[in-house]
C-alpha cells in the first residue's frame, strides 16, 4: 500500500490561517497576497516573517519597496513587534528599497541602489537571503518592483526570473500586489502576478450592516486542499487574525 505524499509545511504565523491550508504554506513556494489598498497586505507579509523568527527560529528577509525601513519598524511596533531585536540577532534582514529612490541617506545595512537593473536587483536579493540563511521572504510590492526598475512592460519576465531564483533557494515567499477590482476578477495590478505564483490569497472588504468588514479568500494554493469560501479576518493589536469558523460572507 502506497504511503500518502505529505507536503512539508511552513507555519504562516497568522492565527486561524493554517487551519484553512492543511497546516501551513507548502515549503519553498511563492504566495501572492493581493487586494485593494488598506486591506492589510503589508502587515500580513511582515507578520509571516516576524513570527517565523519569533516562534519558529526561521530567519527571514523583508524587501520594502514602498516604505523606508525606519518607518516600517516604527509602524510594526504598534503590534508589539520589535523588528530591530531580530535584526541584531541575525534572524531578520530588512532591505531598504526606498531611500535611494527618493534621494534620502540611509543608515541601513542592506540598501538597494537607485540605478539597479533587473539582474542587479535579483542578485542583491539572492545575496541577502544567503547572508542570513533565510527561510522566509516578503517582497512588498510587485508594482513597486516594476516601477523602480522602469520595467512595467516586462513584469511577467521579471517575476518568472524572480520566482525561479526564489524556488532554487528553497525559501517560502510572499509577494504583495494591488488588486484594482477583485469583485470583477481583476486580482492584480498587471494581470500576470497570479499566474506566476503557486498560491494566491485575496484580502478584501465587504459592506455588511453599513460597515466595512475584512475577509480572506484563498484563490489558489498548489499541493493543498482548501476551501473557496470567504472567511472573516481582523487586524488586531497583535496583527492579522483569521476566523476559520466565523461567519462566511
TrEMBL record:
PROSITE patterns: KAIC
Gene3D superfamilies: P-loop containing nucleotide triphosphate hydrolases (3.40.50.300)
GO molecular function: ATP binding
Domain spans labelled KaiC: 8-249
Keyword terms: ATP-binding, Nucleotide-binding
Alphabetized InterPro entries for the sequence: KaiC-like_dom, KaiC_dom, P-loop_NTPase
Keyword ATP-binding: yes
Name of the featured protein: ATPase
Species this protein is from: Thermococcus gorgonarius
Amino acid at each position: 500500500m502506497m504511503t500518502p505524499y505529505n507536503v512539508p509545511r511552513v507555519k504562516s504565523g497568522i492565527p486561524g490561517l493554517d487551519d484553512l491550508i492543511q497546516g501551513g504554506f507548502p515549503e519553498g513556494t511563492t504566495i501572492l497576497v493581493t487586494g485593494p489598498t488598506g486591506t492589510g497586505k503589508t502587515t500580513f507579509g511582515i507578520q509571516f516573517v516576524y513570527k517565523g523568527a519569533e516562534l519558529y527560529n526561521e530567519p527571514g528577509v523583508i524587501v520594502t519597496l514602498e516604505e523606508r525601513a525606519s518607518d516600517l519598524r516604527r509602524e510594526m511596533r504598534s503590534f508589539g513587534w520589535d523588528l530591530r531585536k531580530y535584526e541584531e540577532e541575525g534572524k531578520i534582514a530588512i532591505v531598504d528599497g526606498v531611500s535611494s529612490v527618493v534621494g534620502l541617506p540611509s543608515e541601513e545595512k542592506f540598501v538597494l541602489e537607485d540605478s539597479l537593473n533587473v539582474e542587479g536587483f535579483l542578485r542583491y536579493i539572492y545575496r541577502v537571503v544567503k547572508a542570513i540563511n533565510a527561510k522566509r521572504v516578503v517582497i512588498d510590492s510587485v508594482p513597486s518592483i516594476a516601477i523602480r526598475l522602469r520595467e512595467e512592460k516586462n513584469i511577467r519576465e521579471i517575476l518568472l526570473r524572480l520566482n525561479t531564483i526564489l524556488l532554487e533557494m528553497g525559501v517560502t515567499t510572499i509577494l504583495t500586489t494591488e488588486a484594482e477590482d477583485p469583485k470583477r476578477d481583476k486580482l492584480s495590478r498587471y494581470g500576470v502576478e497570479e499566474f506566476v505564483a503557486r498560491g494566491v490569497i485575496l484580502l478584501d472588504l465587504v459592506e455588511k450592516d453599513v460597515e466595512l468588514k475584512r475577509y480572506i479568500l484563498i484563490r489558489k494554493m498548489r499541493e493543498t486542499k482548501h476551501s473557496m469560501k470567504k472567511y472573516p479576518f481582523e487586524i488586531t493589536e497583535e496583527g492579522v487574525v483569521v476566523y476559520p469558523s466565523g461567519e462566511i460572507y
